[in-house]
Amino acid sequence: MARFTIVRQSAPSLLALTRTLLLASACVAAPLSAKADGVFDRLTIGGYGEAVYTHNFFSDDYKRYTDPGKYPDASHGRFDIPHVVIYLGYDFGHGWSMGTEIEFEHGGVEAAVEIEKEESGEYEKEIERGGEVALEQFWLQKKFMKQLWVRAGMQVVPVGATNAHHEPNQFFGVYRPEGENTIMPCTWHEVALSIGGTAGKWSYQAMVMPGLDSERFGNSGWIHDGSASPFEFKIANNFAAAARVDNRSVKGLRLSVSGYVGNSFRNTLYPTDSEKNSGVRGTVAIGSFDFAYNDHNVIARGYFDYGHLSDSHHISTFNIGMSKNTTSKRQEVASDAIAAGAEAGYDIFALMPCVKARNQRFYLFGRYDYYDSMYRMEVGKPLGWCGRHRVAAGVNWYPIPQIVVKGEYSIGLLESQYNNEPAISIGVAYAGFFK
How far apart are CA 95 and CA 142, in angstroms? Predict the structure, then answer.
């Protein structure tokens, strides 16, 4: 925040007035932070985390879709820690800042080395816990004014509702919305160069980044795994662009559109320069609309995503023919995928003044999703179990604004030849800044 000192003089000289205006201009061009009192005051620490339990009233056997008649009545339960995230940010002053996000998924990874007494005292490596640890964000930003900032580094691609708003207090369900989490990377992060800003009721962001890798596309997740890389670097033989625009002209309402376009074929180390691959681009195009409303004790959210992949049949054939030693899924991929959903909840504590005065909230909510990762195929017939409807109802209790306790009943409704997938889930989560 710019700081100005006005000195009252009875007859200021032209030189003094000029000097004052120049100093004010310098402050506007390179604003100092409001947290510029000390090194520790410039530091921001925050994060979020989730712990959940789910009992699924259906089989988790990998053959449950290929031979559904053998698994009609099975069930299984799971404890999980889907995400624990630590935010660290620092304001260097003069418009320069840094942001980082370290994410531990499913409890992180635990590995150990031990001596096996039963195997002649050999040293043996063991994986004690599955999971992932990822640097999801690391960027440097220069803010010139509120209408324009420039950011470079690892950052979230804000395409779709979930990528832009993925903290656990920004959706009602125990897990992130299933549709977007299926057909797109989530949370989608890339090393990118982006610009953004806010002007009145509008805000925007646009970025350039490496393209997706078609080698990792598949049937059940469409392009979901295409942003990942098993290497120590991200291949950038192709580039892509993404953009998002938000509007908040109506009190309590946000309307947003976002999109992505980029080529995906040849963005791999696997050879693709043969004559039969000439002209193949594998262009991924995604369009998305989402909204959120929060007023009058009601929260409502919704989204619609549609994606298209050119040359999908060629990519499917190419991937299926790859060596088993590659990282490819070696599966068919659809030309089109779709996801749509909406949820709404009402705070019943708003009807109880004594509880509302303590800043507690208790939402009863309902949710509906439809998604299909094989919505359309260039050649062949889609796999029927890749498309489904999902209906859920439950509660979100906020004893304090940063803590939420969640519970829901959900059911995935599949085509008649497959078994439906009902489940009960409970979870607890936090989201906020500690300083």
Answer: 5
